[in-house]
Design goal:
The structure is a single chain. The chain is built from no helices and 37 strands. By secondary structure, it is an all-beta fold. The chain has one domain. A 12-stranded mixed sheet has the order 3-6-9-12-15-18-21-24-27-30-33-36, with no helix packed on it. The chain has a 12-stranded mixed sheet with strand order 4-5-8-11-14-17-20-23-26-29-32-35, with no helix packed on it. A hairpin with a 7-residue loop joins strand 1 and strand 2. The radius of gyration is 21 Å and the shape is elongated.
Length: 304
């Protein structure tokens, strides 16, 4: 991994805690004069560190593999921070792995894009934050995987949105909790051709000022041992050709000011040990060609 030492002349220096596992054939020199780091290679990019990986420029970060894949691995933690935007692009796949934690922060936007698959895995927690928008896209036949032992946080704080898109499947898994938030007046979109899985031992929170859309050709599964909260001001849409499952050992809350739509060709299952609340100022629609099951051991409320 290359970093820019701004206390000295504008030259590229190798970090003392970072080593390159595989040789890289550069296509162009990283741009130093524009306050950014650009690493472009025709072959796979491999960066491994026993402690930390922290490219932190003032403007933007660009990591691009034109032919194969990008691998970023650290025993402790990974930090990718930019005052403007972060772009990680590979023709094959992107892998970010850490035993500690992963932090990807861009004041403008964060883009992780590739043709094959995206994997973000660590033992601690995952944080992806941008003022503008967050885009995680696997354009080919594979999938998006975000896994953490502790918690997952995906946040877009400015007036834009969160988009997670895969042709195959989307998996977001955490032992503690999952938070997906579009704080400004826009939306959250999770789309997969196959299936969507959001699993947490703690709780699941999906929040947007505009709308929430979770769409899969096969099935949608949202599972939590604590509670599930889907909240926004406009509308909620959960659509699957096969089935929809929302399961919590505590409670389920789906709340918005406009309307709620849950649609599946096969079946819909909403199950909670405590209570189920689906509330909308407009209308509530739960539609299935097969069966609908809404189960709560405590109380159940559907209000429009």
């Amino acid at each position: 991994m290359y970093t820019v030492n701004r206390n000295q002349a504008a030259t590229l220096t190798r970090s003392s805690y970072t080593r390159m596992d595989d040789p890289v054939t550069p296509v162009q020199r990283p741009d130093v004069t524009s306050n950014s780091v650009r690493i472009t290679a025709a072959h796979p990019v491999r960066s491994s560190a026993t402690d930390l990986v922290r490219p932190t420029p003032e403007d933007s970060v660009r990591i691009t593999a034109l032919r194969d894949s990008v691998r970023i691995t650290a025993r402790d933690s990974v930090r990718i921070t930019a005052a403007d935007s972060v772009r990680i692009t590979a023709r094959d796949s992107v892998r970010i792995t850490s035993f500690g934690s992963v932090r990807i922060t861009g004041r403008d936007s964060v883009r992780i894009t590739n043709r094959d698959s995206v994997r973000i895995t660590n033992r601690d927690n995952v944080r992806i934050t941008a003022r503008d928008s967050v885009r995680i896209t696997a354009a080919a036949r594979d999938s998006v995987r975000i896994t953490a032992r502790d918690s997952v946080r995906i946040t877009a704080t400015a007036p834009d949105s969160v988009r997670i898109t895969s042709r195959d499947s989307v998996r977001i898994t955490a032992r503690d909790s999952v938070r997906i938030t579009a704080a400004a007046p826009d939306s959250v979109r999770i789309t997969a051709r196959d299936s969507v899985r959001i699993t947490a031992r703690g709780s699941v929170r999906i929040t947007a000022r505009d709308s929430v859309r979770i769409t899969a050709r096969d099935s949608v599964r949202i599972t939590s041992q604590d509670s599930v909260r889907i909240t926004n001001q406009d509308s909620v849409r959960i659509t699957a050709r096969d089935s929809v499952r929302i399961t919590s050992q505590d409670s389920v809350r789906i709340t918005n000011q406009d309307s709620v739509r849950i649609t599946a060709r096969d079946s819909v299952r909403i199950t909670a040990r405590d209570s189920v609340r689906i509330t909308a100022q407009g209308s509530v629609r739960i539609t299935s060609q097969d069966s609908v099951r809404i189960t709560a051991q405590d109380d159940l409320a559907l209000a429009a």
